[in-house]
Design a protein that fits this description.
The chain has a domain at 26-111. 61% of the residues lie in helices and 8% in strands. It has helices at residues 6-31, 55-58, 69-77, 80-90, 92-101, 110-128, and strands at 43-47, 64-68. The structure holds zinc ion.
């Protein structure tokens, strides 16, 4: 198997960074407030199920909601609040669907990241109007 050339690795990294930025901004614009404490300041995109299991979870809208910095940080060691909120809003079936995505290891291509970035930049523009 051939390895990726350094410039290819670099463009993959920047494509991913652009996708993450556009997606996260979209989630904040969509929700507008922290889903667990209702604050409207220092908003971040917070993933219910950790994205360490793969990019699929990172870019699944139902796995991402707006939380303030404090709640996002708290979610790391006390996931109950956000999980309870999710279950109340979406139900246990959706939660189980998300858990299944953990097993779906999917590696996104540079092209996938570019598509995601373009899509969410447009979504952000639509929401900012
Ligand atoms: Zn909060």
């Amino acid at each position: 198997m051939r390895s990726l050339r350094p410039n290819k690795v670099k463009s993959r990294k920047s494509a991913k960074a652009a996708a993450v930025k556009a997606f996260n901004r979209y989630i904040v614009l969509r929700d507008k407030r922290c889903v667990t404490c209702d604050k409207t300041e220092h908003l971040t995109c917070s993933h219910l199920i950790s994205v360490t299991a793969g990019d699929k979870l990172r870019f699944t809208e139902i796995n991402a909601h707006c939380q303030c910095r404090g709640c996002n940080f708290k979610h790391e060691y006390k996931p109950e609040d956000y999980t309870r909120w999710f279950l109340q809003h979406y139900g246990v079936d959706e939660y189980e669907q998300l858990c299944l995505l953990k097993k779906e290891i999917r590696k996104y291509t540079t092209e996938d990241f570019r598509t995601i970035a373009t899509r969410y930049k447009l979504e952000c523009e639509a929401l900012s109007e």
